């Protein structure tokens, strides 16, 4: 298994990974394409899992902002993550997330947020975000699915406010 940065040669396969992982629907595959074309895209945070020259998993992390009054903090949002159904439950998702979080630290992005399954993400350090004074208005989701991972101690102590997902998420 190779975990590596996505390249343009992977785009067709990455589309397919997202399409099949999300039950043969295009929404997430298209989301990936819109984010790639936006200024919030960080190429090194689009990561693929490759097995015998086949892309079997993909993780996209991209930039977003937390806004409080006139203050803005750049953060990372994790979405989407997809592993082909016949390759799930083999730890590929886990490897992609660990690699993504490691890279975030390297690039000094210390706050990662997501909307996701509350039983899957806590093992990577994600915790319910609203308890840190973080909010999400455009997506109405229960407290436990809006999560944050702090990659540097106390990083969240000065970051409060509303997470604004970029336009790409609302097309
Ligand atoms: C969510 C998703 C990316 C996870 O990918 P994955 O590669 O299956 O994830 P992992 O293998 O790391 O972990 C999945 C589970 O399988 C278990 N598992 C890992 N390796 C295993 C193995 N060798 N044998 C059996 N089970 C295993 C893990 O323990 C984990 O279960 P747990 O969380 O209860 O502990 C994948 O299920 C997916 O693509 N789903 C559809 C798309 C989606 O919903 N994406 C998330 C929203 S953006």
From TrEMBL:
The record's PROSITE patterns line, in alphabetical order, gives:
GNAT
CDD domains attached to this UniProt entry = NAT_SF (cd04301)
Question: InterPro entries from the xrefs?
Answer: Acyl_CoA_acyltransferase, GNAT_dom
Q: Where is the N-acetyltransferase domain?
A: 1-152
- This protein's source sits in the domain of life called Bacteria
Q: What is this protein called?
A: N-acetyltransferase
Q: Which organism is it from?
A: Paenibacillus sophorae
